Amino acid sequence: MRLINSIFKILKLSGNREKVVRNVYWAVSGKVVQIASGLLVGILVARYLGPEQFGLMNYVISYVMLFSILATFGLDGIEVRELSKHEADKGALLGTAFGLRLLFASIALVLILTTLILFESDRYTFTMVMVYSVSLIFSSLNVIRNYFTSIILNEYVVKSEIARTVLGALIKVVLLWAHCSLTWFIAASAFDIVLVAGGYVLSYRKKAPDSMAWRFDRATAGMLIRASFPLLLSGAAIVVYQKINAIMIRNMLDNAALGQFSAAAKLTEFSTFIPMMIAQTITPILVKVHEADSTRYLIKRQQFMDLIVWSGIGMAVAMSLLAYPAILVLYGREYASAIPVLQITAWRSIFMALAAASGQLIIIEGLQNWVILRNLMGCVVSIGLNWWLIPVWGIHGSAIAMVLSVACAGFFSHHVIRPYRFLVPIQWRAIFTGWRSIASAVRKRAVD
């Protein structure tokens, strides 16, 4: 908690500090439990299944993830922004967003089934993908999480997520003990989404105002669709350039190679969660600062970028240095080929931090109409580099493609997209001098 207070002193959000710090504390705590539990159980599952079956499991999840952006329709950021701004219309916003999410999740299921019929010849893989895809329907209830994020009360949903994480982990441990097949583990992964959706509903029923009835409003639906459509296209590009490597590795190499790559990718995800969580949690406060005082906002957005970027740099350095012992100790020598992959993908954390911080600023300033361009650049780079480098360097080439595609989307694209050029000096300053503002705040905190 003291560390979080020090972080928020950099932004000097004194009026809301106690509430915001508590929100960040719960958000980070929940994510730590989720990542730690998922990593621990995931490691046990990976060791149990071996690289080949572990690779197939990750192929199934990645396949469904390619369609998940349609199920969410890019609504997450827009929901948080609108719920933060409009106190009186929350019932209409929640009801409409939930209805839209259900509609688009159903369309995504139809598209998954269609593509499997057309392109997937393996009946077992076909069945596993359909089993996991059911989770898209229950992910519609993520609108409740966005509601609590908008009012800076993540505590209530995080508690339910922690309970779900522990229960889901116990289920997988039982499956390991019972020596169950891969089918059961994929079904358990889908059931995780059902558990967290149920937790969201219980938290909402307990804490939300009784008077706030959900209702579907056509005008609100039109507004949400218009605002989120650019983010839908952008999100589709993001999912493609983040998940297409798994699809291409499996089809250009084999399941075992994908298993090695996935082992490194799981640890890379751990190194990105801190900057991502800080960025998402601070955003509602920056929205209010942007509306209240434009001059103060200019200062806060630079401090925001400094903090996110240097948290990413710290995680990247640590993960790169610890790659060798981390893979051997956690996964075993069977996954030794994942070591150089992790040493490469660890640096993705820096560019993910740049992308996360700039993405939130883009939404706050209402510039999401051009976000598709930056993510399309990342998508094209990812597909092109994977197509070129996988036959040459195997999974190491895919790791390079992963880092460069995120760098292109979250950093270099801002140099060529005119509306986003204001981000260029902000990001460069964060990289080269951002540590000074953080160090200054830490010293001042120590003196106080």
Q: Could you explain how this protein is built, in words?
A:
- The protein has helices at residues 2-11, 17-72, 75-85, 90-119, 123-133, 135-138, 142-150, 154-177, 182-207, 218-252, 255-292, 294-321, 323-330, 338-345, 348-364, 371-393, 395-410, 423-447.
- With 448 residues, it is mainly alpha-helical.
- It has one domain (11-447).
- Helix 3 runs parallel beside helix 7 and helix 10 (218-252) packs parallel to helix 16.
- The protein is globular, with a radius of gyration of 21 Å.
- The model has no long low-confidence stretch (mean pLDDT 84).
Chain-wise SSE layout:
Elements: H1 2-11, H2 17-72, H3 75-85, H4 90-119, H5 123-133, H6 135-138, H7 142-150, H8 154-177, H9 182-207, H10 218-252, H11 255-292, H12 294-321, H13 323-330, H14 338-345, H15 348-364, H16 371-393, H17 395-410, H18 423-447
Helix pairs in contact: 1-2, 1-18, 2-4, 2-5, 2-8, 2-10, 2-11, 3-4, 3-7, 3-10, 4-5, 4-10, 5-9, 7-8, 8-9, 10-11, 10-16, 10-17, 11-12, 11-14, 11-15, 12-15, 12-18, 13-14, 14-17, 15-17, 16-17
Mean pLDDT: 84
Intertermini distance: 16 Å
Question: Would you count the extended β strands for me?
Answer: 0
In DSSP terms (H or I, runs of 4 or more residues), the helix count works out at 18
**Globular, elongated, flat, extended or rod-shaped: what is the shape?**
globular
Q: Helix/strand/pairing class, anyone? A: mainly alpha
The helicity comes to over 70%
Strand share of the residues?
under 5%
Largest beta-sheet details: none
Number of domains in the coordinates?
1
Cα-atom Rg, whole angstroms? 21 Å
Low-confidence stretches: none
H and E order: HHHHHHHHHHHHHHHHHH
User: What's the multimeric state?
Assistant: single chain
